Write the structure tokens for this entry.
Amino acid sequence: MEAVVGGPDPRGCEPAAGLCPDSLPDGLLVADARRRVVVFNHAAVRLTGISRAGALGRDFADVLPLYDADGRDWWKCVDPYRGLATRTRHPERPLHLADGPELLVTAAYTRDADGGVTAFTIAFRDAVQRARQERNRADLVSTVAHELRSPLTSVKGFTATLLAKWHRFNDDQKRVMLETVNADADRVTRLITELLDVSRIEAGRLEMRRQVVDVIEEVRKVIAGRVAAGEPTGRFRLEVLGDLPEMWLDPDKIDQILGNLVENALRHGAGTVTIVVEPDSREQGAVVSVRDEGEGIPPEAAQRVFRQFWRGHGQPRGGTGLGLYIVKGLVEAHGGAITVRRAPCGGAEFRFSLPAGAPDFA
């Protein structure tokens, strides 16, 4: 942090170090050796309501008075400038401003050779955001646990029955039970895969294994899979509106995107499911649209369909509500974008673009 302390400009940026605290999502306050505030970024202004001009040059404890859950003045408790000379940082903890919001605060010291404080850096963020994230994680765990309970109960029930009463059942009865166990095991696998996908998307750790992919053939493969699963052939229509460039994509993730969108159209839509594949007129790549002839999605809900756990009004429960969230993450991992709008036949149209990519992106 020495570079920051050396004299940031009034906006809180340090040109020499290439660092602009205003680009940080968390609040940042830096005090110099005399306890005077020398950096107070945009997020700090937003979180505290104190202007930058009102913060710079003042004692940091006056600018950011923090109290613990028992109402004690936190800076008097830790005494940053006269406390332990071996202290290097304070781990994150919840504190609150006087008559203000709760913040999650962490701090670090920069010291000279004698242990004196040359810079004291405080980073803080809104605790409400963390609470929201924790609720989302709790909802995710609760939803997945609920969805896992049913197939696991079925698997346990049928296997226990077969083990205890194997000789009482004929071959046809055994086959039905084992087919049910197999289907429920596949369902458990899908749920775990969804959970892992969500985790990787949120952490930005999706691995892309690009190779040349025939997008049109991938669509045909997805349709064939649905027909093999019992859907009538006439339920699907594929429209190809031009030649596509060579597409370098992750084939497994493309199958997952198409499979999720087609499954969504079958489950929540009606009539014919139309998949339109066309070259991207603006950028080199492809655009794929999946349309149904159901009731569609209200315009006011269009911005929410890609959130975790979203379910349309009146839709039956079933599934985790993570499918479209995962689809959006997979499309964006390819460098594309996805939108939803009203289809020409009145249903929903999910439309996503994919850049052609290149092998060295892998």
Remarks:
- The longest strand covers residues 102-111.
- The CA atoms of residues 131 and 173 lie 50 Å apart.
- The radius of gyration is 28 Å.
